[in-house]
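Action item from last meeting closed. Structure (139 res):
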């Protein structure tokens, strides 16, 4: 298990609005190094698998439908204390509550369409990184 990586996804609405470039620029500004990255689209089944920990939550159906509705960018980011550092950098889950200047405050629409995902623990960061990327795809 690596404790210096996190997994992010640029979500479908942010992709649709043309925010891939600005979000990647903010990620670089925050001092995160890209270890792996891909432009892809999740099937509903893949979104359900990725967000399995939330399967009992009332928002699970909407969340997985949305996350499989269009292309995303998935990336492994590296930095010391990456999980917490990235959570600080993207801001609160709800863009309306995210600190000014954070990625979700700048590019999020609402709680579901909150621009980006960031892993919530070191363990989940490693599980989520393995979900998208083979070890041979990481540099
Ligand atoms: P994310 O970091 O991708 O992890 C789970 C996602 O569920 C979260 O961002 C939100 O986009 C979404 N979500 C929708 N409704 C809620 C809610 N009530 N509480 C937490 N997350 C929610």
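Sequence:
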């Amino acid at each position: 298990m690596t404790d210096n990586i996190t997994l992010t996804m640029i979500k479908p609405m942010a992709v649709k609005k043309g925010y891939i470039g600005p979000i990647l620029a903010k990620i670089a500004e925050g001092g995160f190094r890209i270890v792996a990255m891909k432009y892809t689209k999740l099937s509903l089944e893949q979104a359900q698998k990725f967000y399995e920990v939330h399967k009992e939550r009332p928002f699970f159906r909407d969340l997985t439908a949305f996350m499989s509705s269009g292309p995303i960018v998935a990336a492994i980011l590296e930095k010391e204390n990456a999980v917490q550092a990235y959570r600080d950098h993207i801001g609160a889950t709800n863009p309306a509550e995210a600190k000014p200047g954070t990625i979700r405050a700048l590019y999020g629409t609402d709680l579901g369409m909150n621009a980006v995902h960031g892993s919530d623990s070191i363990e989940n960061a490693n599980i989520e990184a393995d979900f998208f990327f083979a070890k041979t795809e990481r540099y």
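Note appended to the action item: Residues 54, 59, 63, 93, 111-112, 114, 117-118 surround adenosine-3',5'-cyclic-monophosphate (CB under 6 Å).
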